[in-house]
């Protein structure tokens, strides 16, 4: 296997736009410290805004004294009130950060599914015996679905795709490229909501609450949209792989191989134990789905709000239960697989796997601490609301159609992704202004989240700052020892362009046709209007 040192060596001398991205992007601090630096900048801006008397009219609150819209003035984060709030409420600020609970709950189950071997075996089973004519689309589809397995798709499917392409007499690097495009370029595309939905909609929920108060995110709010992305992205990646990349690569030359994956067992047939484990996992999945259907439409309907007047509100408990539903689904499916395959002996193994999943989240916890305080302090300063109101007023005056506005958001997200790889870090950074601003223009939080996801995935596969980029390079160097970072970026660039263009077309079409984004979620919403606070009843 090519070493990390080899990968580093191959980066030297990189020129052009990608070289510029690498050089300048590497100068950025870690996302954790990026948030801390932004907090310091935010404090300074809040002081200046306070002194300057920056203000805006609240879009949804009426001042009871004047009967007019409430005036919201910028507040210094160095005021005694905000300093007290920072230190006194620090534990609350962290633990009440919405994405934190969502991600921790889902990952407790997903960690069992990953460590028991369910995710890896399911991906192997999905691509190993694929017909040669359909090899590319099957690998791409499994890659996009593999995002339910988080990092497992990178370390299992992508090297396996090279082995399978080689066994089929095709260029192995073309297989790696197709899998990488599916897993990372199609990062948000999927037939089912999953961990990423819980993470992003938790941040969306926090962004809405900074301006409009209580709001509960529906993590299925992009379900139809991400399924549409899957059906649009799959033929795009298939075409680019078979018609552009593989002809460009030519016939694979064994003499150029480094330490090939000949010793890998990724292409071995499934054992009887693994097949039994998959059968047990399938039964567990069917059982969990049946249980949720029963609780939603069966006797008593605990996941239906029978008292809700609006039809869309009746399913709110069901949407809110999906985080717990994915936890139970992954947990029981992983446990069932482990019992069938022999990778889980007793309940102690199960607990160790769940503990291991929490260990993997150590970095995320640190990032969430920094992001939570940035989002909270942004709200305390009132700058998010003021910027959202003024930004909405400006954009409204331009008469820009919704599709054009969302297309620009996609392009900004794609550009930002070249420098800040973390999907959650970027969304936590821009959502406190973007989401309320879009809402004031009549565009739903779900649509704002969907547009961000399109831009976030498209450039994942061409930025050297993407955390798995060096690993993918090492996978390629197993088959071509001279394959460098620039080579990988050049191979992936047509995929990136294709995904960005098709993602823009999909978003524009979705907005123009006003299609539902998911159960109970639409592109547009009623613009929040000012309402008077409830009158205080005099005491008897």
Description:
This protein is mainly alpha-helical. Helix content is about 65%, strand content about 0%. The protein is built from 24 helices and 2 strands. It has helices at about 5-10, 15-25, 30-50, 80-90, 90-95, 100-115, 120-125, 135-145, 150-165, 170-185, 195-210, 225-250, 270-295, 310-315, 315-320, 320-340, 345-360, 360-380, 385-400, 400-415, 425-440, 445-460, 470-475, 485-515; strands at about 55-60, 70-75. Helix 8 (about 135-145) runs parallel beside helix 10 (about 170-185).
Total helices: the number is 24
Query: What gyration radius follows from the Cα positions, in whole Å?
Result: 25 Å
- Give me the side-by-side strand order of the main sheet: 1-2
User: What portion of residues belong to β-strands?
Assistant: under 5%
Tell me the total number of β-strands.
2
Q: SSE order, as H and E?
A: HHHEEHHHHHHHHHHHHHHHHHHHHH
The residue fraction in helices comes out at 55-70%
How would you state the average pLDDT, rounded? Answer: 85
Shape: globular
Sequence stretches where pLDDT stays below 50 over 5 or more residues: 1-14, 261-265, 533-540
Largest sheet: 2 strands, antiparallel
User: From the helix content, strand content and strand pairing, which structural class follows?
Assistant: mainly alpha
Ends distance: 82 Å
């Amino acid at each position: 296997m090519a070493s990390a040192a080899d990968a580093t060596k191959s980066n030297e001398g990189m020129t052009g736009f990608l070289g510029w991205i690498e050089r300048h992007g590497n100068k950025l601090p870690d996302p954790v410290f990026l948030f801390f630096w932004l907090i310091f900048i935010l404090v300074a801006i809040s002081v200046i805004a306070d002194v300057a008397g920056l203000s805006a009219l609240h879009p949804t609150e009426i001042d009871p004294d004047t009967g007019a819209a409430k005036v919201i003035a910028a507040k210094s984060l160095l005021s005694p009130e905000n300093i007290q709030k920072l230190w006194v409420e620090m534990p609350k600020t962290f633990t009440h950060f919405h994405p934190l609970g969502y991600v921790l709950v889902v990952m407790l189950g997903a960690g069992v599914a990953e460590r028991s071997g369910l995710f890896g075996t399911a991906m192997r089973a999905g691509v190993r015996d694929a017909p040669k004519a359909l090899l590319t689309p099957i690998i791409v589809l499994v890659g996009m679905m593999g995002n339910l397995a988080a990092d497992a798709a990178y370390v299992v499917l992508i090297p396996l795709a090279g082995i399978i392409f080689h066994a089929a007499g095709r260029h192995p690097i073309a297989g790696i490229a197709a899998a990488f495009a599916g897993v990372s370029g199609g990062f948000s595309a999927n037939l089912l909501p999953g961990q990423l939905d819980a993470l992003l909609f938790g941040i969306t929920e926090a962004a809405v609450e900074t301006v409009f108060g209580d709001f509960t995110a529906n993590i299925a709010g992009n379900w139809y949209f991400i399924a549409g992305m899957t059906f649009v992205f799959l033929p795009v990646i298939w075409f680019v792989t078979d018609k552009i990349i593989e002809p460009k690569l030519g016939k694979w030359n064994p003499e150029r191989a480094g330490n090939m994956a000949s010793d890998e067992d990724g292409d071995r047939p499934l054992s009887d134990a693994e097949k039994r484990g998959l059968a047990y996992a399938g039964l567990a999945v069917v059982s969990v789905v049946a249980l949720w259907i029963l609780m939603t439409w069966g006797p008593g309907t605990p996941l239906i709000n029978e008292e809700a007047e609006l039809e869309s509100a009746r399913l709110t408990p069901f949407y809110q239960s999906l985080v717990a539903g994915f936890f139970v689904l992954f947990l029981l499916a992983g446990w069932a697989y482990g019992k069938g395959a022999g990778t889980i002996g007793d309940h102690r193994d199960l607990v160790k796997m769940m503990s291991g999943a929490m260990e993997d989240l150590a970095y995320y916890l640190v990032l969430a601490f920094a992001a939570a305080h940035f989002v909270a302090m942004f709200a305390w300063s009132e700058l998010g609301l003021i910027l959202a109101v003024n930004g909405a007023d400006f954009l409204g005056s331009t008469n820009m159609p919704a599709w054009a506005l969302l297309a620009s958001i996609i392009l900004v997200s794609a550009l930002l992704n070249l420098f800040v790889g973390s999907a959650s870090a970027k969304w936590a950074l821009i959502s406190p202004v973007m989401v309320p601003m879009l809402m004031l223009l009549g565009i739903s939080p779900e649509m704002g989240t969907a547009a961000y996801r399109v831009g976030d995935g498209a450039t994942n596969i061409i930025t050297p700052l993407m955390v798995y980029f060096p690993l993918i390079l090492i996978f390629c160097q197993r088959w071509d020892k001279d394959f460098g970072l620039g080579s990988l970026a050049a191979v992936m660039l047509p995929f990136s362009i294709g995904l960005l263009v098709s993602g823009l077309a999909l978003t524009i079409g979705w907005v123009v046709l006003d299609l539902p984004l998911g159960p109970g979620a639409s592109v547009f919403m009623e613009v929040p209007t000012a309402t008077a606070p409830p009158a205080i009843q005099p005491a008897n």
